[in-house]
């Protein structure tokens, strides 16, 4: 039985839908029943579920709010996941955890590999990095997938923000000097479940444990991502706003973002034969879903 945490989030939602579609026995939990800020709920959920694998899709993901709410970010990204990982270790079951491109400062000038030194520039990134280390210490049979720029038809994300903005304004300014890889939550969920299928077939190998980069293939800037969103939206009948490229300096945020957080995903392909689709391939279906009448009653 797979225990999926963060069921109300983008990745948690995708994991549940896909696990259902694949007939995989699973239990998906979210707050308040499972809350990293209330550690007793971690233990009680784990005991009640008696899982054979845990996928942690729960996290404190509010990058800017983390700057003024460090205790919640620590609980959601570091100490909570470490407690869950320790329970997995105690039960001798594998733990799949999700981390972020924001563990890097974005100054490498090339795609990061898993062993590159981390240097987060904000509290969100730092707590996620601390979580990675704590999870690995607590549970040797853990896999950590670093992903980036996650979007889906469910929850808060850049695609939804752009489409909502397009309904309210005829011109937008979008940052054009930050580079990364958009990742559809459904694509990441498929990869996670494929990993589980692989190790069910092969048995758990020590070589599986560790950190992997897992993002949509290809990369872009927020500005070009916005342009692609509106290209898709136009085919669904939305009138696209004009977009002006701006620099990070023109759009100050409480947390500093990495300027270039591309992640090299070759290790995932080498070890697990997994490669996420190109981000441009997955985008149109999500845009169409977000513009569908049931999303906009
Ligand atoms: N979104 C991105 O662009 C992005 C980029 C890189 C990496 N990631 C990583 O990818 C993973 C999935 O992200 P996502 O986009 O699916 O996030 P999301 O949509 O923000 O969902 C986060 C989930 O975590 C839950 N959560 C928050 N605080 C919690 C706590 N204290 N205890 C238990 N659950 C808590 C949320 O519950 P509520 O609904 O109750 O708030 C929600 O179910 C995370 O590890 C994230 O760090 C995301």
Describe this structure in words.
With 297 residues, the chain is of the alpha/beta class. The protein has one domain: 3-Layer(aba) Sandwich (Rossmann fold). 41% of the residues lie in helices and 15% in strands. It contains nine helices and twelve strands. The strands form four sheets. Strands 2-1-3-4-5-10 form a six-stranded parallel sheet, with helices on both faces. Helix 1 links the parallel strand 1 (2-5) and strand 2 (26-29). Helix 1 (10-21) packs across helix 6, helix 2 (39-49) runs parallel beside helix 3 and helix 5 crosses helix 7 (222-235). The chain is globular and about 55 Å long. Bound molecules: NADP nicotinamide-adenine-dinucleotide phosphate. The site of NADP nicotinamide-adenine-dinucleotide phosphate (NAP) has 29 residues, from helix 1, helix 3 and strand 4.
Portion in helices: 40-55%
Identify the CATH class: Alpha Beta
Whole-angstrom Rg: 19 Å
CATH topology: Rossmann fold
Which series of helices and strands comes N to C? Answer: EHEHEHEHEEHEEEHEEHEHH
The beta-strand count equals 12
Assign the CATH superfamily: NAD(P)-binding Rossmann-like Domain
- Distinct ligand kinds: NADP nicotinamide-adenine-dinucleotide phosphate
Beta-strand portion reads 15-25%
What is the count of helical runs?
A: 9
Low-confidence stretches: none
Tell me about the biggest sheet?
6 strands, parallel
- So, CATH architecture? 3-Layer(aba) Sandwich
Q: Total domains, how many?
A: 1
Overall pLDDT level? 96
């Amino acid at each position: 039985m797979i225990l999926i945490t963060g069921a109300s989030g983008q990745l948690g939602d995708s994991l549940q839908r896909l696990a259902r579609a694949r007939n995989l026995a699973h239990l998906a939990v979210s707050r308040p029943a499972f809350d990293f800020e209330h550690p007793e709920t971690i233990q009680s959920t784990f005991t009640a579920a008696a899982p054979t694998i845990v996928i942690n899709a729960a996290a404190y993901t509010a990058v800017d709010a983390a700057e003024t709410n460090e205790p919640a970010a620590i609980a959601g990204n570091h100490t909570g996941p470490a407690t869950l990982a320790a329970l997995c270790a105690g039960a001798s079951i594998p733990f799949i955890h999700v981390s972020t491109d924001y563990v890097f400062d974005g100054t490498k000038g090339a795609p990061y590999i898993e062993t590159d030194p981390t240097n987060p520039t904000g509290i969100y990134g730092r707590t996620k990095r601390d979580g990675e280390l704590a999870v690995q210490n607590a549970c040797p049979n853990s896999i950590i997938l670093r992903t980036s720029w996650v979007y889906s038809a469910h929850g808060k994300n850049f695609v939804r923000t752009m489409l909502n903005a397009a309904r309210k304004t005829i011109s937008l300014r979008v940052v054009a000097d930050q580079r990364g890889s958009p990742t559809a939550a459904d694509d990441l969920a498929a990869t996670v479940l494929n990993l589980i299928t692989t190790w069910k077939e092969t048995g758990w190998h020590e070589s599986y444990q560790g950190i992997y980069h897992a993002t949509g293939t290809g990369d872009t800037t927020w500005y070009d991502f916005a342009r692609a969103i509106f290209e898709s939206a136009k085919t669904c009948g939305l009138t696209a706003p004009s977009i002006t490229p701006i620099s990070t300096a023109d759009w100050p945020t409480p947390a500093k973002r990495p300027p270039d957080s591309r992640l090299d995903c070759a290790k995932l392909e080498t070890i697990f034969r997994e490669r996420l689709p190109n981000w441009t391939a997955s985008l149109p279906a999500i845009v169409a879903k977000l513009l569908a009448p049931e999303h906009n009653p």
